[in-house]
Amino acid sequence: MKIIMMNRSWTMKIVKPLIAVFALYLMLILATGTAYSANLGESHYYYMLAVLAELENRWDDALVNYNEAIKNDPDSPYLKVQVSYIHLRLGSVEKAIAINEQILKDNSNYLPSLKLLGELYNSKSELKKAAKIYEKIIELDPETTESYVFLGALYLTMKDHDNALKALAILLSKSPDNMMANYYTGLIYLEKRNLNQAEEYFNKTLSINPDFEYVHSYLGLIEELRNNNEKALEYYRKALELNPHNVKVRDRITNIYIQDKDLDKALDELVHISKDIPDNVDVHIRIGLLYMEKEEYLKAIDEFMLVKSASSTHVAARYYLSLAYEAINKMDKAIDELKDVIKIDPHHVNAFLRLGFLYSQIEDFVNASKYYEELLAFDKSKAEYFVYPALTYMEMNKYAEAKTILLTGLNKYPKSDEILFNLAVISEKQDDFDTMVKYLKKVIEVNPKNADALNYLGYSYTEKGINLDEAYSLIIRAMNEKPDSGYIIDSLGWVYFRRGMYNDALRELLRATELVEEDAVLYEHLGETYLKLNMKDKALEAFKKAIKYYKDEKGLVDRVTKRIKELLP
């Protein structure tokens, strides 16, 4: 935070009378010739020429004449300070600093030079130097109230809260109603998260100046930190009354509305912000994301397209645009945007992941595996990055390729239950029961609460008709983790069936159908259970549903068709 301190407005208050006086004085000098100039002193002569040039904004002429005046009065710190002001106006801050530093070497207590140098150091963000200058000014002139404020503000910027409070407290002890001292003290306590103290000083500031816009905004922030959003909004709205173009306040209001799920009001605020700063692409992105949240995808696309037209290489806008296209099932456009994102940022992880996902959704598993493997080529930071391409290979029945990738991942992540689980799935696909069991046991060892592995192993034992007590225990453990999983309830019903507990089996299988309506295996199990209970009509109905919902369950159609033939007259 820079503190703006430079102010020579006093000069302009006397511009017109000075012009008249100096013009008359110069006429006298010119009329009397060089002898009169000598009597008055060459320094005064050039000084007056310099002041007139300065008043007429002829900075170069002013500089020449001030330097001439100094030649005739080289010990005048006043003239040197005026020269430093001219250098400042000509844009040479470093030159102005150097002149004042030299003045203070010769006259360390010269207040005009100290005050200007403090301002100059602050403008260059040399805050420690500026603070030392203001400490010196206060030592020389303890009654200059603005120096305490500047010093406190400087220490605040440097996060030296103790010294900032000390400087401001001295001023407040002399002048309790100093508005800026109260304001900065409030800011310090706010930074220290002493909200009650901050509120006290901000309220004192408002009692002096009720229209201090920033104080209303900070009081709003205090109420936000207290989780009192309604009160915060009151302060923020007052700040906006004072300045409708305060973007930061509107941003705070927007965040509150988003927290409160009032997306329409949040959008209204963002639209106001976009009108104040129309070229700010981040605002359009935020508007687009809110439209996404509201599922107004076409409006979201419009916002992201505005950013894209302003900056075709804006990665975030292009990525969000792809998500919006995906949401309206424009997969080709979504894929094109993601490909462009990768061209702009070849290591954009989410773009690769999303491309793999989208290609999987349209069952283009070749391209899906391609993008997943391209991601793996530069980023192996997560175990799931090995799982995704393996899953696409499994969809293509390329189990060897899938296994190779997973084993590579397992070498890097030996305790990844996700990798181990999918190795078990592949082993089952390859009819390697023992290896499947080995991997599933390893998953459970790594993560005893992995419901899928517990259920998988329990169901596999049940299907084989082996280890039924252990199978039951595994499935119960899985249910404890996922009590509403229809598939796990189906496993429980099936293990009851295998143990000859047909009424218990029927109860669980019927419960499973309420959660999973279109699973062929579940209805096969239900049909077999009805048969055991001699409920042939219901068994036939269940077997027909199994055929209806069949996908690719190995051997199911042959088994169920045989049952149906047996049941038909």
Q: Can you describe this structure?
A:
There is one protein chain. The chain has 569 residues and is an all-alpha fold. Among the domains are: 1-141, Alpha Horseshoe (Serine Threonine Protein Phosphatase 5, Tetratricopeptide repeat), CATH 1.25.40.10; 527-569. It contains 34 helices and no strands. It has helices at residues 9-13, 15-32, 34-40, 42-55, 59-72, 77-89, 93-106, 111-123, 127-140, 145-157, 161-174, 179-191, 195-208, 213-225, 229-242, 247-259, 263-276, 281-293, 297-310, 315-327, 331-344, 349-361, 365-378, 384-395, 399-412, 417-429, 433-446, 451-464, 468-481, 486-498, 502-515, 520-532, 536-548, 556-567. Helix 7 (93-106) packs antiparallel against helix 8 and helix 20 (315-327) runs antiparallel to helix 21. The longest helix has 18 residues, at 15-32. The protein is elongated, with a radius of gyration of 40 Å. Residues 1-40 have low confidence and may be disordered.
Q: Please identify, by name, the CATH architecture of the domain at 1-141.
A: Alpha Horseshoe
Secondary structure category: mainly alpha
Which class of the domain at 1-141 in CATH terms? Answer: Mainly Alpha
Beginning-to-end CA distance, first to last residue: 91 Å
Main pleated-sheet profile: none
Sum up the overall morphology in one term.
Answer: elongated
Low-confidence stretches are: 1-40
What is the fourth-level CATH superfamily of the domain at 1-141? Tetratricopeptide repeat domain
Q: What is the helix tally?
A: 34
CATH topology value of the domain at 1-141: Serine Threonine Protein Phosphatase 5, Tetratricopeptide repeat
Rg, Cα atoms, Å: 40 Å
Calculate the mean pLDDT score and round it.
91
Approximately how much beta-strand content do the residues carry?
A: under 5%
Number of strands: 0
**How much helicity do the residues have?**
over 70%
